[in-house]
Fold each of these.
Amino acid sequence: MIWSLIVGAIIGLIAGAITNKGGSMGWIANILAGLVGSFVGQTLLGTWGPSLAGMALIPSIIGAVIVVAVVSFILARMNH
């Protein structure tokens, strides 16, 4: 369980860095983005590539980028 949270946080940090939204996200948001992104990425793309803590890293990062981008878009639309 703790490894999943750590890997989820790292995946969320990577996704935040790729989308340039990592500075505005806190640790909890990074963990959630990583875990939800892992689920989304593995559901859409499968479980290929290197795996850590039960998460296929490449699909998980791609999924987390999608999650961060969608959430950022929705939040930006709500603020304007």
Amino acid sequence: MAVDLSRQGYRVQRWAARGALTAAALAVATPLVYGGLRGLLLLVCGVAGMGLSAAAVWWTLTLRGPLRWAAALVAVCVPAGLIALFAATLFWALLVSLALWALAVWSGRFALRGTGSERPAARERRLPPPRRPVLIMNPRSGGGKVGRFRLREKAERLGARVVLLEPGKQHDVTALARAAVADGADLLGAAGGDGTQALVAAVAAEHDIPFLVISAGTRNHFALDLGLDRGNPAACLDALTDGVELRVDLGFAGEQPFVNNASFGAYAAIVQSPAYRDDKIGTSLEMLPDLLTGQQGPRLVARAGGTTLTAPQAVLVSNNPYRTGDPFGLGRRERLDSAVLGVLGVRLEGAVGAAALLLNPDPSGLTILTAPEVVIEADRAEIEAGIDGEAMVLPAPVHCRIAPGALRVRVPRKRPGVTRAPARLDWRRLRKLAATVGRTAAPSRLHRPYVAPDAPDVPGVPVAPPVPPTPPAGPGGPDTPGAPQEPAGPRSSHQ
């Protein structure tokens, strides 16, 4: 007897969804049942403590003097005390709860495989190696990674021409990249931070030639989302001989390109300070009270699509949206070719707003959306901005846009960060999947509607299977010409 593998596979996913929901419910219920009334009181204390901690963090950032240090003490001691209290009272219950929660996450992601929750794989093209690659390297980036990993020597052995930026000297990176193209370069690359990467990438996109990312900066978020090895920048050079090409988007804030993000508001104002490079924490603590309370800095208005954000303390516009709903992928971009900007706006009104940001699942002080264009306005002629971490001042208003597929990135064929991303843990979809009976909600790859042999194959439009002919029913029957026909019954829909 034939086995319907698609039906079996979907049944397994449905039961995995039910198992995930059950494990999540037990993870919450176990400490409450184990502790009884005491467990319920501890839960209430935990929620109140989280709110107090968030408020204390706000006071730490907006106050000065002894009050700031008192608030910082509260922000540290309250969470530590809660952890100790829970561990002493509900130790075994907490361990069981954590294990159940891990099971819920694993089962939920297994259940959502093949339902459209996974990150789509980026398209890769195999192309012959470049003949005249030119790489611009900043020896100061990342604490001297260019010299430590001998990037220049390896690149020259592979046939690349290296332009080394001299320490202590101002360089026009854009002009150097354009000169390399005019001299016949068929690939541009950059070894440095994200700010340097963006400038060289814009020239490569302008001339439609491949761009090579070498992760020689401090953080290199762009390299991270491309799956490159940030711990060994020399491995990025393998793309010169064994590489593939990806098409990704490029962001612009006015005329300034960015591969990661453009920030406006508090952070953008702080990075303008000359003291920030030498004392990041001290400079931030000195400037934040006035910036967060509106006593210093411009009053911003951000417009994205049909949404207007008035007087935010900070706005972050990213080249493709960052992942925010899953703590396991926080700060990562699922893809770099979605042709939209990510927008993250924060507007907090005092300590209560800070507590709501932590406790409310849909806080009013946090705006997260996507749009192809974002306009940042201000009550002054210029706006301070941080473009891929570089301090800039741009004329207001600043029009942020995305150039879809503008950048050809050449990366190694084998790179450690390229793994199949787990499905998003969407509890709403899990509930829907667990509640279904039969195959009506099966994902499209497992359940394909019947298509008549002679009918055109229109994606997404189900066609009913053929109905066997009905013998004539005599005069006045359904097959008698001119006889009234019964209305067709409702079509079954595939969710």
Amino acid sequence: MRKAFNLVREYTDEGLDEELAFQLASDQVKEELGKELADCLAYLIKFYNFFGIDLE
């Protein structure tokens, strides 16, 4: 998320409209964000298994 916000700031500093800057930044980080969320899910599942918590 920090990367996306930094990109938006960079783009707006370069003169782009804020909405367009946000769209460009979100397109660039979307794939990386999906990977990070998958990592978080994997860690949560490990945590649940370790402590015997039922996911349902």
Amino acid sequence: MDLSSLMFPLLLVLLAVPLFLSARKQKRAVAEQQALLNSLEPGDRVMTTSGLYATVAGVNDEDNTIDLEVADGVVTTWLRQAIREKVVVDTETDAVVDDVEDVDVVDETADVDRAQQETKK
């Protein structure tokens, strides 16, 4: 059996595997996006493909549209496909240091000065 006769089938396999894997990845991404669009409910915070942050005000299954409230009382109608992702609202607030006296301040320059003086002796 000649080595050149094995090269063509091997080349076909090497080209087919990445195509198969990319098709699976794309199919999974489409399924995830469709699940996201189907799970939208009024009150969800979303971001559109154009970068607009809004709150879902209503969903119209017949027209495949969604009403987004971009400001208080300002509702616009968008296609569902314009929704890019749900935005998770972080309700926790970061702790703020109220008293400066509670914070320990480390004076690193004093340690360096002491070390330099000791090496000079």
